[in-house]
Design a protein that fits this description.
By secondary structure, the protein is of the alpha/beta class. It has helices at about 20-30, 40-60, 70-80, 95-110, 165-180, 205-210, 215-220, 260-270, 300-305, 365-370, 375-395, 395-400; strands at about 5, 15, 115-120, 130-140, 145-150, 190-195, 220-225, 235-240, 280, 310-315, 340, 345. The radius of gyration is 23 Å and the shape is globular. Bound molecules: zinc ion.
Length: about 400
């Protein structure tokens, strides 16, 4: 039943009639009629009705997705699909094109958008480059606010990646959440939406944003939710920062490890998605349960003393290259030289070449992912949207201190 549930505009579930019940009902009604001279006509009629019922049941299945899922897919395709912007390497013109697309989409929802431009030296090539963060703000009744962030640059283009999973899908979800929030009444907490540039070359955009925050802005930030690689892999997770401080460019004195935002998001996820859709990853060496490393845009915020929640799609039950570390994202046999299901790892650690990886590989494209996992991206976009919709629609109560 769980995959037949629907999110209404307030993030609550409503049930629809399961497809098999519909079809069964139609068949029963027709074939229990007494036989008459009109039998053959009735049989034809039955066939038409059967098709109609099946179609109806399919339509009912379709509405089990969050109402904004189809629109979210159009953003994803505009960024990473065929005929879309495609590769969005940091510091390039196509990264600027993606920034322009994000800015104009946010403006179409009524936001006045801030463009935070910055220059940096590429850590790999030592070349001077420039990029930009795109920021939209929904003011609250107070100065307190929460941040929803995701990076829009991509990497590994030389391998064929179009950065669909990493990280166009997250930007697509961020845009849809921004649309939802733009239509809400003002709540106590404001919301800042930030699309970060130049993440793949050292979290440059996120550090730039945090370095320009005043102390008051840092104090008023109630949390930062980061979306990175949120669809495409076997499972969905929500993490907190690590209990051991990140490197923080050598300045970790304000570092904050705080699982409360993760736990609040998980509480919402448990309510609005089928059981066990979102998971807390089990602990493994160096990574206690539910905690993540400093490899994405949440890190500079944790370093600045702000609680973080990080959404990620991967598979922590795979025994990958360095253990159950989340780098192997799927058990799909096409993503392995040879996968041993009984041991949830490679058949042979010496000869394994692929390790179940999607991001930063030629597999990070919508055509590849759709052929490996038909319908998965759509379903996972919907699950992420469902959780964030429910979280932001009731932002004040979800962030209320009594929930700690
Ligand atoms: Zn990423």
């Amino acid at each position: 039943m769980h995959d037949l549930q629907d999110y209404d505009s307030h993030g609550k579930q409503s049930e629809v009639v399961p497809r098999d019940v519909h079809v069964y009902y139609c068949l029963n009604h027709l074939f229990c009629e007494p036989q008459t001279i009109m039998h053959s006509i009735k049989m034809a009629f039955a066939a038409v009705l059967f098709l109609l019922c099946t179609f109806n049941a399919q339509a009912q299945q379709a509405i089990s997705f969050d109402p904004l899922t189809a629109e979210t897919e159009t953003y994803l395709k505009a960024l990473a699909g065929e005929g879309g912007i495609g590769v969005r390497k940091a510091g390039t013109e196509s990264e600027v094109q993606a920034a322009n697309f994000i800015q104009s989409t946010l403006e179409s929802f009524g936001y006045s958008v801030e463009r935070q431009a910055f220059a940096y030296v590429n850590r790999d090539t030592k070349v001077n480059e420039s990029s930009q963060n795109i920021i939209a703000h929904k003011a609250g009744k107070t100065d307190k606010y929460i941040i929803l962030g995701a990076h829009y640059d991509s990497t590994s283009e030389e391998l064929g990646s179009l950065g669909a999973i990493d990280n166009a899908a997250s930007i697509a979800v961020l845009l849809s959440v921004a649309k939802i929030v733009s239509e809400l009444d003002t709540q106590e907490y404001g919301v800042k939406f930030i699309a970060f540039g130049a993440e793949e070359v050292g979290l440059v955009g996120a550090f730039e944003y945090v370095d320009n925050m005043s102390d008051v802005q840092k104090q008023n930030a109630r949390g930062m939710i980061n979306l990175d690689g949120i669809v495409g892999s076997d499972n969905l997770y929500i993490h907190s920062a690590h209990s051991t401080p990140y490197a923080c460019k050598g300045n970790a004195e304000n570092y904050r490890f705080d699982g409360s935002l993760r736990d609040r998001l998980m509480a919402v996820a448990t309510k609005v998605t089928p059981a066990n859709t979102f998971k807390i990853h089990p602990g493994f060496e160096g990574y206690p349960s539910g905690e993540t490393g400093g490899w994405s845009d949440h890190a500079p915020f944790a370093c600045a003393g702000i609680a973080i929640g990080n959404f990620e799609s991967t598979n922590f039950s795979i025994n990958g290259e360095s253990g159950r570390d989340g780098y192997s994202q799927s058990t799909h046999p096409s993503l392995w030289t040879c996968f041993d299901e009984a041991n949830m790892g490679p058949c042979d650690r010496e000869t394994e070449k692929k390790w179940g990886k999607i991001w930063h590989t030629g597999n990070d494209r919508l055509d590849v992912i759709e052929s490996l996992f038909p319908g998965r991206v759509r379903q996972q976009l919907s699950h992420n949207l469902g959780v964030l919709r429910a979280f932001f629609v009731h932002l004040d109560s979800n962030l209320h201190d009594s929930q700690k």
